[in-house]
Design brief:
Blueprint lengths: L2 H12 L3 H14 L6 H17 L1
Helix pairs in contact: 1-2
């Protein structure tokens, strides 16, 4: 699932806007002390899960 599609899906589920979801995701990544684009963060997490739990 692409980043924009993910934003739309989460926004719909949480009854908010994709823009607000994006803002929250960026704030959470920044609060974690990381400086990366949300799509890169999601890809990094997905790769870690795949490595640890699927392989």
């Amino acid at each position: 699932m692409g980043y924009r599609k993910l934003l739309k899906a989460v926004a719909k589920e949480e009854n908010t806007t994709p823009k607000e979801v994006d803002r929250e995701i960026r704030a959470a990544i920044k609060a974690a002390g990381l400086d990366m684009h949300p799509a890169a963060f999601i890809a990094m997490c997905a790769a870690k899960v795949k490595k640890d739990y699927i392989s």
